Amino acid sequence: MATMGEPAPCDTLFLGGGTPTHLTLGQLTRLLAAVERWFPLAHGGEWSVEANPADITLSTADLLADYGVNRVSLGAQSFDADKLSLLERDHRALDIRHAVEICLPRFTSVSLDLIFGAPGENLDAWKQDLQSALELAPQHISTYGLTFERGTTFWGRRLSGDLRSIEEDTERAMYETAIDTLTDAGFEHYEVSNFARPGHRCRHNEVYWSGGRYWAVGPGAARYVGNTRSSNHRSTFTYLRRIRSGQSPVAESETLAPEDQAREKLVLGLRKMEGVLLADFERDTGFAPHDLAGGAISRFIQWGLLAQQGDRLQLTRSGLMVSDSLWPEILRR
Amino acid sequence: MPSIDCQHIRNFCIVAHIDHGKSTLADRLLEQTGTMTVREMKDQVLDDMELERARGITIKARAVRMEYKRGGETYELNLIDTPGHVDFHYEVSRSLACCEGALLLVDAFQGVEAQTVANGYAAIEHDLAIVPVINKIDLVQARTEEVADEMRQSLGVVPDEVVRVSAKTGVGVQQLLDAIIDRVPPPKGDPNAILQAMVFDSHYDKYRGAITYVRVMNGVVRKGDRIRFLRAGAVYEVLELGQFVPRQRACEQLQAGQVGYLICNIKSIADVHIGDTVTVAQGEAAKPLPGYKPLQRMVYCGLYPSDGQDFTELRDALEKLSINDPSFEFSPETSEALGFGFRCGFLGLLHMEIVQQRLEGEADIDLVQTAPNVTYQITTRKGETLEIHRPQEVPDPGQIEEFRQPIVRVNFLIPDEYIGAVMNMCHERRGVQKSLEHLSAARVMLTYDLPLAEVIYDLHDKLKSATRGYGTMNYDLIGYEPADLVRLDILVNGNKVDALSIICNRGDADRRGRAVVKKLAEEIDRHMFEIAVQAAIGSRVIARETVKAMRKNVTAKCYGGDITRKRKLWAKQREGKKRMKSIGSVDIPQKAFMAVLHTGDEKK
Fold this sequence. Notes:
The complex is a heterodimer of chains A (333) and B (604). Chain A is of the alpha/beta class and 333 residues long. Chain A has helices at 25-38, 58-66, 81-86, 93-103, 123-135, 153-159, 168-184, 203-209, 236-244, 258-270, 278-285, 289-302, 317-321, 327-331; strands at residues 10-15, 41-51, 71-77, 109-116, 140-145, 188-191, 194-196, 222-225, 228-232, 250-255, 276-277, 306-309, 312-315. In chain B, strand 18 and strand 19 form a beta hairpin. Helices cover 23% and strands 34% of the residues of chain B. Classes of the chains: A alpha/beta (333), B alpha+beta (604). Chains A and B meet through strand 5, helix 7, helix 8, strand 8 and helix 10 of A and helix 13 of B.
């Protein structure tokens, strides 16, 4: 952080990418103090911290709150013991309930992450998870379909036949159920995977989705400064070695041309449920969406995947479901 | 070069099945006659195109002059190389017409194969003296005497006359040279008669233009002569002539009986017709030599640039290719589905594959190729005769009086235990059996008349699998016969994709239609919407498959650190569509255009 040279005031802060709450109280205090010094939070700013439910104790929560943290995102995943074990999590449903009880009075927003589509999971089990989450009355919920990615133990387990992905139809039904259940319960579905009670959206993440700029610190952390996206080395060891020897920790860096920035911003904007306001977009980027990808956009509108009402372009429900198939057309120059 | 009398000339070729060692034997002859030293020789000098080497076949004929001294006499031996594949049947026949003798080369282990018989009979038909040769006698598995008996059975060869050699070790090559001089008759022909020479091959040289290979039958051709090509009707001046030894070597004249080349400032190889007759430009011309046939393309397909590829690039590449291959033709065509492209004609399926590989390998062109088809003939109610090179050209059924398809006579040479399997294979393809002959105790020649369309795609592969690789085949066009044919159209989401239409037998239409739509549905990736794939005859749909819409395809997490990776991933998916054609928003991969070849008789 000291490489910033001088303190950089921020509107939002997000401590995540792992579980900072794993730290001892002493270590966590040092971290929070350093963040407070180098990235002082503006008045009315949002400061989120990711937490493992099992790590939340009264003293941790008090410490976070004392430093000005006002939003906690709990990696709940599920309330089902078997599913949690399958997902290789070390907490129990009880830990989640306990953590939420501690956090609700201390922070403005509490968010729960939930995973659906675990091998062997059925729709009823998922509905049960959603109900359990709602009963705890968090202000924010994120739901993620389980993905098998190269380099994870799940990838290997699926390859070896140990795990099987669930049917695509079931996965879709689970996703739609989440959307319907949570919006019925008064949440706004504001991004592909994110739901918030009014006034409780994650402002930090909204910066990502609006093509805004941000700094980053730590192994694997990604920043977008000027026209350049860069990310730090993922290996903690290499990261530390570079920092200590006064080298840049940056592993990859990419400078985007204005048109590519605009295309990317359009995709990220359309992943928000409110979509993109055409005039605002053109004013911000210098490119009109219909000039960037007019053919694709009209085709998608014709197929009912996108909808345009007045100045607003947004995904429809069926467009949302297959949205990854739209982006290649929009990103293509 | 001093003039030489015909008594000291021998013109011969080697006919053999692929891999029976023709090129190795040619090398050994060049070496033994001192035409080329081992050091000068790359392996197998006669096959000099890389692709030929890769495929182990000789595509273009060449002629090499060798000098051989025996008992104080000097002989001129001209080895005329012949293409070894069925697609080049006509070229083979023209090469044979330039020779007085043929070495009939058979592998001591493989024995007589379909091509050996076909080419052997062709040589006999041309009245050539046959010098039977068994090669690879050094092999441990050699069954020389049995093979000699097979040659007797299948071609009437006298076993005592068979020269046994090993081209690899050189054993018997000396005796073979003697046999060539003793048994191949010298050419007849009158050096004082009017010039009459046969064009048997050509190639293109970028500095000299077309180089014409000729065999002088009568008369003399000299440098500076004005000559006439009778079929082409064109007159040229001979700028240079000579022989290949094996490199091009100029000389002053070529006389009756000799083989060599002419350079006449011919700009395009397409102006040189194989089988054409060369004579004098002025005065009384010689008679045209018999046997000339215009090139006959047996197989046609459409070649189109993939999405994002340039039409002009493809055209340039085709032009470049045709400079050296007059047997390949192309003309622009348009398809509603594929846009601008070319209809290309080939001598056969192998020829088509070679051209396609050259385009992709040498020109780096990304192609969409439509399924190959044969040429059909239609007589309309009005009495017109139409040549149909592509299914789209088939008129409405109401206008068709008669629909005819090309029929080929196919000879299969197989071990007799596979007779049943091969007969089944032929019956499924509407073959008519013509004969069944035992060549030896265990080998059989089976002859069928089959529709060419049933032969070109996969009959060779099917034969190999039905006979565990032991069967060989050879075919020859015998004519056109009426058949109950229909055009089967393919519709993708209700849009007829003209490039996917096929012509098939009415009785097979249901089965073919079902097989094709099933295969197509497998080849087309799921889209954001449902895709109906239908087969129809006229307006009647006979088969349907559905490619279900994609149900869920959405990235859940896209936060600060994910954005670059996801963007690249999405952009790459666009790249993956390169080898596709978008038809009414449906991306159809190149492979799908070949799906129409699925006949539906694949057995589990």
